[in-house]
Write a structure and sequence with these properties.
This protein is mainly α. The chain has helices at about 1-15, 30-35, 50-100, 105-115, 115-130, 135-155, 165-170, 175-185, 190-215, 220-230, 230-245, 245-265, 275-290, 300-304.
């Protein structure tokens, strides 16, 4: 009986589950469990059942706090490389925002409330051209729709402790890189792990933005405009590697470039604002690529 109880406690401790109900309150507790829980008492010196139950609950609470700390620290470690990458890329966004006429504070607030590189760059163009709120909403919906799919996929790996408030907070910090790391994590993903994983990238993106925005006010124009295109270099670096292996991505990227040039330089389309231009380019390029190079289902791959 004691071994069964200890195994249950340790296995649930390792998975980060929150234990809210007593586990075998009438069974004896082994000295091993008590030592891990921080008591060091022997089973034969335990009080009667009621006090023994309190002992177990206190030990479980202690182990639960340790699990939260372990998962949070692991998330922090996994988020370090993402934060370093965001720090350099968001520096370019900060400079670009100042070049477009925004204040450093406005640039920082955008990064604090959005945390989406492509969405922020597209939104910046809408702000500069005095676009409408509907245009801004549609632009963000089109560009950031992939985060909905990422969150839906990641929801299959969430631990039972992920309540609705936890899900809402974690959804705010979902980015391409955060999703990739969380999806590759073995076992279930706990709230404390996700908060640790999101924290440093969030700080890195915001810090890089304010540093870039402040530097944009003091750097020479030649350096400032050169650094301002760094964020576009990141998008090129994201597209090129998979495009070398996937003809569908090549077609989508090429069509997006052609459509963007037509909408920008053909007088017939001069009435289309930059925000709607992004929406049209994304819809046309992705639709044509999906028709020409459809993704095969797993069942089809097995039969062929």
């Amino acid at each position: 009986m004691t071994r069964i109880m200890d195994y249950t406690l340790f296995s649930r401790y390792r998975s980060g589950s929150v234990i809210t109900k007593p586990i075998l309150p009438c069974a004896k507790v082994s000295s091993t469990f008590l030592k891990v829980a921080g008591f060091g008492a022997e089973p034969h010196v335990l009080p009667p059942d009621k006090l023994q139950f309190i002992y177990i609950q206190k030990g479980v609470s202690n182990m639960k706090n340790q699990a939260y700390a372990l998962h949070f620290s692991r998330g922090l470690r996994c988020g370090v490389p993402i934060a370093l990458g965001y720090l350099s890329v968001s520096f370019g966004f900060g400079i670009a925002a100042v070049n477009k006429g925004l204040s450093p504070l406005a640039a920082l607030l955008i990064s604090l409330t959005n945390l989406t590189s492509a969405g922020q760059v597209a939104g910046l163009e809408v702000i500069v051209t005095c676009g409408t709120l509907i245009e801004m909403a549609l632009t963000q919906l089109t560009i950031n729709l992939r985060y909905f799919l990422m969150s839906l996929s990641l929801s299959q790996k969430l631990a039972p402790t992920f309540s609705l408030p936890h899900r809402l907070l974690a959804a705010f910090g979902i980015t391409d890189e955060v999703f990739g790391v969380a999806a590759s994590e073995k076992g279930l993903v706990t709230p404390s792990y996700m908060y640790g994983l999101i924290l440093l990238p969030f700080l890195g993106w915001s810090t890089g933005t304010i540093f870039g925005a402040l530097a944009g006010n003091v750097l020479p124009d030649s350096i400032k405009y050169a650094l301002g295109i760094a964020i576009y270099g990141m998008f090129v670096a994201i597209v090129l590697p998979p495009a070398k292996k996937d003809h569908g991505i090549q077609l989508a990227a090429g069509l997006a470039v052609v459509c963007s040039l037509l909408l920008a330089y053909v007088p017939l389309f001069s009435f289309i604002t930059s925000g709607f231009a992004v929406i049209l380019c994304a819809l046309i390029a992705s639709s044509v690529a999906a028709l020409v190079f459809p993704i095969k289902d797993d069942k089809e791959d097995e039969t062929t």
